[in-house]
């Protein structure tokens, strides 16, 4: 019986690689899943774009925040699956080995003028928010649109939301709303964290291969001085001292050491829990409205693979979350019923009663349900 079961499992495995149709490069951390009645089974491509499917399926769905989502019928699945990018691909990065002094001078001016250039007025923008969560054995999706009120940056006031249309996709009606990554993208915004300390902690180099029709717009590639797996780039308008676009990619070592404590890691390890992979990617764009710059688009990806190994359990798990947030200056429908968007838990040391009430209020927005 064991031989038969092993043979059947081997026969049911589908292996391959996910590749960018333009560059022919493998795509890591692509969400791959199938839908069967009310159940969702998922897998993920690894850092080399390779995947292995150990469950039966009629169709496979492949999703990644930077590529068009596709459905592939079982009979059309090949060992190489191509995805089409939805974002502009950067030219080959060509950087020098030395960081010239002018870069620090320009970046310091950006920090100095930040409060004069970003969110200088409280302004309400319409938004569209999407988030998708895939695990080994489940799928969840949440879409929301309405209005969000931006506070003045220098006041550090909360964002407020009028969530007018909310849809949950799940196997049943037991799931609640998920604004967690919307909150992360708003309060953990790149420009909110960009300061003189950030400049000191990262190396910056100009990408000589980057081109723009405006000669004052350049691209700077940055990398952490402390962590090898924390890097990204900014697109900078040197004439107006503003960052127009920023991307930050952080790997396992950075996330474990900055998002967890030594005590927490020791407790988890004593119970057989370990992090195998922990990847986060964020990309934010800023647009000028009136005399000030506001976030216009943000994409965020979270991927975690863990394993538990002890006398009782020996198992591997993964979670993949992709979130997108878009803003527009056109407000078609207004409402006076704005709810405070609470700050993420990791930003707040102690949660007050008022914060708990704000959490509860946000969870009570009206929703409709659809099957995943």
> Could you give the count of β-strands?
19
**Which parts are unreliable, with pLDDT below 50 for 5 consecutive residues or more?**
1-11
Return Rg in Å. 22 Å
Large-scale geometry: globular
Structural class: alpha+beta
Supply the number of helical segments. 9
Largest sheet descriptor: 12 strands, mixed
Describe the structure.
There is one protein chain. With 372 residues, the chain is α+β, with helices and mostly antiparallel strands. It is built from 9 helices and 19 strands. The longest helix is centred in the first third of the chain and has 12 residues, at 101-112. The radius of gyration is 22 Å and the shape is globular. The two termini are 35 Å apart. Residues 1-11 have low confidence and may be disordered.
Q: What is the fold's blueprint, element by element?
A:
Blueprint lengths: L1 H11 L1 E7 L10 E6 L2 E6 L5 E4 L5 E6 L2 E7 L6 E4 L17 H12 L1 H4 L5 E13 L3 E12 L9 E10 L10 H8 L2 H4 L2 H6 E5 L10 E8 L5 E8 L4 E9 L1 H8 L2 H9 L2 E17 L2 E18 L4 E15 L10 E2 L12 H11 L4 E3 L2
Parallel strand pairs: 1-7, 10-19
Antiparallel strand pairs: 1-4, 2-3, 2-5, 5-6, 8-9, 8-17, 9-10, 10-18, 11-12, 12-13, 13-14, 14-15, 15-16, 16-17
Explain briefly what this protein structure is.
This protein has about 375 residues and is α+β, with helices and mostly antiparallel strands. Helix content is about 20%, strand content about 45%.
Structural descriptors:
4-stranded antiparallel sheet; alpha+beta; 372 residues; disordered N terminus
């Amino acid at each position: 019986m064991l031989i038969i079961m092993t043979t059947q499992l081997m026969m049911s495995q589908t292996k391959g690689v996910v590749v960018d149709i333009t560059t022919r490069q493998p795509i890591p951390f692509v969400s791959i899943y199938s839908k069967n009645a009310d159940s969702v089974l998922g897998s993920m491509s690894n850092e080399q774009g390779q995947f292995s499917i150990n469950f039966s399926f009629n169709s496979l769905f492949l999703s990644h925040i930077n590529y068009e989502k596709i459905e592939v019928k079982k009979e059309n699945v090949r060992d190489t699956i191509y995805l089409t990018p939805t974002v502009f691909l950067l030219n080959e990065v060509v950087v020098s080995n030395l960081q010239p002094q002018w870069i620090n001078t320009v970046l310091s001016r950006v920090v100095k003028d930040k409060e004069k250039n970003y969110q200088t007025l409280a302004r309400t923008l319409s938004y569209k928010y999407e988030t998708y969560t895939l695990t080994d054995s489940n799928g969840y999706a949440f879409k929301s649109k309405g209005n969000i009120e931006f506070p003045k940056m220098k006041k550090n006031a909360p964002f407020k939301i009028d969530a007018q249309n909310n849809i949950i996709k799940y196997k049943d009606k037991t799931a609640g709303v998920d604004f967690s990554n919307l909150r992360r993208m708003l309060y953990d915004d790149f420009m909110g964290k960009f300061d003189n300390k950030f400049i000191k902690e990262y190396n910056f180099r100009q990408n000589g291969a980057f081109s723009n029709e405006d000669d004052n717009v350049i691209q700077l590639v940055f990398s952490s001085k402390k962590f090898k797996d924390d890097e990204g780039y900014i697109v900078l308008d040197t004439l107006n001292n503003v960052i127009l676009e920023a991307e930050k990619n952080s790997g396992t070592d950075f996330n474990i050491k900055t998002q967890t404590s030594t005590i927490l890691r020791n407790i988890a390890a004593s119970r057989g829990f370990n992090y195998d992979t922990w990847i986060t990617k964020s990309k934010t764009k800023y647009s000028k409205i009136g005399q000030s710059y506001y976030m216009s688009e943000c994409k965020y990806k979270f991927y975690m693979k863990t394993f538990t190994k002890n006398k009782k359990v020996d198992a591997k798990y993964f979670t993949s979350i992709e979130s997108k947030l878009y803003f527009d200056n056109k407000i078609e429908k207004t409402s006076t019923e704005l709810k405070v968007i609470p700050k993420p838990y990791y930003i707040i040391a102690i949660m007050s009663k008022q914060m708990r009430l704000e959490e509860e209020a946000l969870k009570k927005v009206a929703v409709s349900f659809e099957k995943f």
